[in-house]
Amino acid sequence: MDKTDVVEIRMDTRIVGRLALTKDHLCAFEYDTEFIKNGYSVSPYFLPLQQGLFVAKREPFLGGFGVFDDSLPDGWGNLILDRYLSQRGITPEKLTLLQRLSLVGSGGRGALEYFPDKSVSIETGLVDFDRLAAETEKILTSEYTGDYLDTLYKYGGSSGGARPKIFVKINEKYWLVKFKASIDPQNIGQMEYEYSLLARKCGINMPDTCLFENKYFGVERFDRTALGKIHTVSAAGLLNADYRIPSLDYSVLLKICFNLTRDMEEVYALFRLMVFNIAISNRDDHAKNFSFQYKNGVWKLSPAYDILPSTGFNGHHTTTVNGQGEPAMKDILLVASEAGIQKKRAGEIIEQVIETCRAENKLNRKI
Ligand SMILES: Nc1ncnc2c1ncn2[C@@H]1O[C@H](COP(=O)(O)OP(=O)(O)O)[C@@H](O)[C@H]1O
Ligand SMILES: [Mg+2]
Fold it and tell me: What does DSSP assign to residue 302?
């Protein structure tokens, strides 16, 4: 692959800034002068909107910045990217972070785009879901590098998360469609769909969801609108937090939520999501499964996603509650009070979520 010395980062038509590598292979970033005048900080805790060079730390993103690491594929995306590159005689391990961002180009999640743009994504309405599902399974269970690899790469090569997935545009709406991972039960799509409906019933902000062909879970993308892309950063990206290990507590997340949004309604919404995750035992609540978005000049909590019961980190919640991986009611209440949520309000939210889950037979643990 061509050598890439500098990657220009854009949002819509605006130049946000430039990334280069130090001789120690750490990312160095500077904002564009125009963007400093009329833009905003794309990552308030690590990249304040000011002149000068920022140099990333080695950990936890191999010398990258959290906010840009968010654009890179993980799990599934990396697997097909690696095979796609190997097929072309490129050794994936030799790629620099800049080359990887360039491969994401204008096809990544959120609003950030990387130039030179080497992306090859497609968003077509004609999707053979069964065929794609069968091919993802072959890729997961063998060294398969057949013809369909290119198609899967184009549909979801820059996706995040572990499960196979694709991005598609159908009837003018942008969807993320997920397929089964090797360890998932056959009906995982149906399950995620049911939990998305339950989340909505519990008052959680969920995007539109559907079951394509009665099997494949689809969720409308919240980083795309008819008017353009929305800047979206995960908690991991904002805090430079390692999402592979427990690195976060809900009390910190709730504080960050208020600090960013300055809006207690957003804090209540995140607290509700926390209670819901505990109620259904979604222990895979790591720092990349929460995001914030910059919309109309303010930060907001993003809609919820990746909502499923899961064993998480050795049977514990990956984001802890008052330091506990398996929290009790007292931990939930303590975290609420630390976040400035009145006892009465916290109690109402807890009761509503628990009773709604119980009524649907999905209260998966005692609280
Ligand atoms: N509705 C959505 N709109 C935009 N981005 C999304 C949406 N749902 C998930 N994502 C992004 O895609 C990534 C992977 O999705 P996720 O549901 O977490 O998959 P997995 O089950 O593989 O972890 C998330 O980390 C998030 O960045
Ligand atoms: Mg996920």
Answer: P
Locate the ligand 1 atom nearest the alpha carbon of residue 207 and give its number: 1
165 contacts 159 by C-beta, under 8 angstroms:
yes
Show the beta-strand stretches assigned E in the chain: 6-11, 14-21, 27-31, 54-55, 112-115, 165-170, 173-178, 209-212, 216-220, 224-225, 228-229, 231-234, 248-249, 291-295, 298-301, 319-320
Cβ 26 vs Cβ 56: under 8 Å: yes
Mean pLDDT, range 80-97, rounded to an integer: 92
Cis peptide before 60 (omega within 30 of 0): yes
Contacts (Cβ under 8 Å, ≥6 apart) of 355: none
All structural domains of the chain, each given as residue ranges with its CATH number in brackets, are 6-115 (no CATH), 129-224 (3.30.200.120), 228-359 (no CATH)
pLDDT in tens, 281-310: 999 999 999 999 999 999 999 999 999 999
CA of 205 to the centre of ligand 1 (A): 15
Could you tell which of 155, 232, 305, 318 is best to mutate to test the pocket of ligand 1, judged by most ligand atoms within 8 Å of the CB? Answer: 305
Choose which residue among 71, 158, 176 to substitute to test ligand 1 binding: the one with the highest number of ligand atoms within 8 A of its C-beta. Answer: 176
Residues 6+ away with beta carbon under 8 Å from 158: 71, 72, 73, 77, 103, 104, 107, 108, 109, 119, 121
Q: Which residue has the higher pLDDT, 156 or 322?
A: 322
Distances (CA, A) of 1 to 10, 42, 63, 103: 22, 29, 20, 10
Residue 3 CA, ligand 1 centroid: distance in Å: 30
Cβ–Cβ contacts within 10 Å for residue 25, how many? 13
Model pLDDT for residues 113-127, shown as the tens digit of each residue: 999 999 987 776 678
What are 298's strand-pairing partners?
295
The model's confidence at residue 3, banded by pLDDT at 50, 70 and 90, is confident
